[in-house]
Amino acid sequence: CRVRVDNMVHRDEILKPIWHAFAALDVDQTGKVSKSQLKVLSQNLCTVLKIPHKTSDLDEHFKDDDEGPVSTQGYMPYLNSFILDKVKGNFDFMELNRMCWTLCSRKHGNFNLLISDNDAFRVWCIFNFLSEDHYPLVIVVEEIEYFLRKLIEGTGTDWNDSRFIDYKGRLSTKKNCLNAWELIELVGMGYFTKGMERQTISMGINEVFQELILNVLKQGYMTKKGHKRKNWTERWFELRPDRLSYYESEDLIEQKGYILLDRHCSVEALADKDGKKNLFIVKASEKSLEISASDKKKRQEWIQAVQDCINRLRHGLSAPHREARQQRKELRIRLQAEQSQMEGRMRDLQLANEAKQNQLEAMRKNLEEAAARAAMEEQRRIRTQADLQNRYRMDLEREKMVRMQMEEQVAQKSSELEQYLQRLQELEDMYRRLEEALEEERQSRQDEEAVRKLQARLLEEEASKRAELEQIHRQQQHAISQTQMEKEQLEKQRLEQERTLQAAMLQLESLERQRQGALEQYEARIISGLYSIEVTKKLEQATNRTRSWKDKVAHHEGLIRLIQPGSKGPQKITNWGTAAITETELNVREKSWQESKNKPGNAL
Fold it and tell me: For residue range 558-569, what is the model confidence (pLDDT) as tens digits?
């Protein structure tokens, strides 16, 4: 925990210069210092911190150890118990810094720098203030930028972002941090103050030192009204978080007075009087100060600065630069934690992405295998369809030959029946109509066969497409369930699959419409068959009038059988009409069809 010393200095701020002194005594860089050197260091620390010191305390603390050197871990308990715990707060912190600087500058001195030893000491103090709270002490790149911005602002020049970005890239080789001597070398070599005079650089360093180390929030010349003589005298004013002091001049040799600030103080502007302008008054419990600034802007700046100190005292806040330093540290800690969490999430996402990539690769292989199987099935279907087409073509050719034979028989019988032309005029008219009906029936049969093949092909394609769609759908469901956490990365693939599915559904709907059209054509053909039945009935009526002719041709088979009267029992109805085929012929054809159906090559 942090222990305040002199209401402004924390214990860790006291430890930092002491650590530099201990490191300076470690000449061999082994991390250990002899007891005799630690006795001298402890005596000097007690003298500077104004606490009583006994040399025997060190020997008593390390009485169980050997005569060898002591490390920082071993010296720290003694330092806390016998020195820092006894600090009362009435010491000069700058004297402590100066003593520790004297020890460590001897080891790290001899720099050929553009700044004086006093300016190097000030940079060293600033480093201790801005460094991290762990050892060895280093200053991170954010605090380096903060210090350099303050320094450049103190010299009255503009900040060069590109130059610092270039330096920041080179600093990454040092793990984005510097030790005290590297920071002093950076300032002393003039990398960011190139072209400036040494006095200008010294003024900038002193201004940053005054603000960060001496807690000087504002300073400058103003005119003050006396308490006794009531005369107006120019003084050098310095504003700190808890007091407003004024000196004879800016060299700070002779302090003329001060006023302590507390939560009950106030500051306000005054009207012009006694020939003085830009007046304001600082009121405290013991006394008040009437002050005249050089212009209205300066008066407003001083009023705002004093009021800010009073407000901070009322709320128990520290100096602005200390609070800003703490906020920057908390921000770095928070950013480092967020960065660690982000890196962990990135690793998890990377592992999950690799797993998803493996799953997608397996899915791709499965799809390729399914496509290969589908191609083989399609080839098998095409071969089966070709076989069916050849078989249907041979059947049509046989039927055509039978028809030609029947036509020859009809022609022969017609020559024998020339003597009956007059009596059979109506019969011949009916015969011609029957011929037309038979031609239509033949065409209907061909259409029916074409429709049947089309239906078979459509049904097979529909079944194949439906199976493919169901397979794709199951794969999509499986992929969606596995890749839900990576939905954004696979959204494009899912949309492409949905478009493929929609196209397949559109194709399926098109096939369904074609099947409906084929069914409608088939129904139309059925209606045409009903018309053939009506024609057959008329032919039967004509047969009753030509019984003598029927007796001569009754032994023939073919088209003329269509017009003979049927038996009184049940009759077979086919596409050629009622009683167009005998029971024996039907059994023969049925047996032939059954045999062709049971052949292994005709499974489809």
Answer: 444 444 455 555
